[in-house]
Amino acid sequence: MHKIMSFSLWFLLLITGGIAAAQSNASHKLSLKQAIDYALVHNQNLLNKALDVESAEAFVKENISTGLPQISANIDLSDNFELPTTFLPAEVLGGSAGEFIPVKFGTNYSGNATVGLTQMVFDGVFFIGLEAARTFQELSTKEHIQTKIDVAEAVSKAYYNFLVNQRSLELVEKNFGRLDTLLSETTAMYESGFAEKIDVNRVKVQYNNISANLSNSKKSLMIEKIF
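Above: the chain sequence. Below: its structure as tokens.
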């Protein structure tokens, strides 16, 4: 497995559409699988899609629960802190006529409890809503899978592009060394009268071109390492 000798994690997450947490620009040696695995764990877009899937699953369960038997219970407890007083004629209880006796009726505490059970027999709105919720869940799952594929593809392209640029730089450096030596030798031969000026100019043009290519290749790799 090829390994990138200096590949920034910041750049890796940046190219995949989001960064879950701030990372340093320290370079790491990563295989392609390690780079993809890292992106699949930390990519913010992918994390959001995973949350969407969880939300869709909860939404489906919530819709299903509305069609299940519903049990309701209610308890009511009253504390009669002060019982009401009623005045009765005293003669009713054997007292003197014209007098009244205070009497309190009731209990200090009173309460009641009720339990109910309801079951949905048929409701078209319920089944339509349930089907819509399941469709939403299926769509969220497919989007999550597609985002995984997109992230892996983006990392793979960046990874191999880095390897290609790195290999190209090595070849350019070799050609630069060869032309540098050739230019020195041709210039020495010209000064000794064994070569023409046009030979020196021809080599010098090639040397300048390869020098520009070398500079561009180094800048390209430097940008990838910085990001």
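The chain has two domains: 3-63+122-226, 70-118.
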